[in-house]
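Q: Got a minute? One more chain.
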Amino acid sequence: MSTTTAPDLSTASAEERIQWAVEEFGDSLILSTSFGIQASVMLHLASKIAPRIPVVFIDTGYHFPETYRFAEDLTKRLSLNLKVYNPRLTAARQEALHGKRWEQGLDGLKAYNFDNKVEPMDRAVRELGARAWLAGLRRTQASTREALEVVQVQNKITKVHPIIDWDNRAVYRYLTANDLPYHPLWDQGYVSVGDWHSSAPLKPGQSEEETRFGGLKRECGLHEISGRGDFSI
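A: Always. Here it is, folded:
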């Protein structure tokens, strides 16, 4: 990924990074969330600085019940400008036509992720007129994220990662200081949460990334570069 002509934000605070993005991109800036384990951090940070920023949530139809309730609670608590995007085909129709693609090896998983996550996100970017996208990725989450920079260009959109250099301790301190919750499944051993069929509690000896997609891959496609898709894959 190539960087934009952004100033050096490597030593800036998360708030300063978000403020730069707001000033640089204005109404063309969006925030994505999966309402995952530590989602409260980015949602709180961004909503303080840009209260009306569009918050994109891709509802695959396969989230945990706890995720939907968590999303409802945070949306009300933080007065989020939530924009929900769904796949073009319902979960039931997809399974009738294609089966359970997350059980069909890496190719099936990639096809599932494209239809349920990447395509809806690409659609959100286009419909919202986004030129830049705030994402709460952190380098410590996975080997696929270790080299990410604060600001990068991913295909046709600028990605800004305000908390990219935060570790788990920094996350905990922020949540505690602001009386913010972890996702409810944190208490059941989950350190990363997405679709119910592709997320598992952390086991002894596992890394965080091994709890997703049966260890086949870490990324769902939203934060990868490929020749498929306009913006996010």
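A: The domain at 14-215 is CATH 3.40.50.620 (Rossmann fold).
Q: Perfect, thanks.
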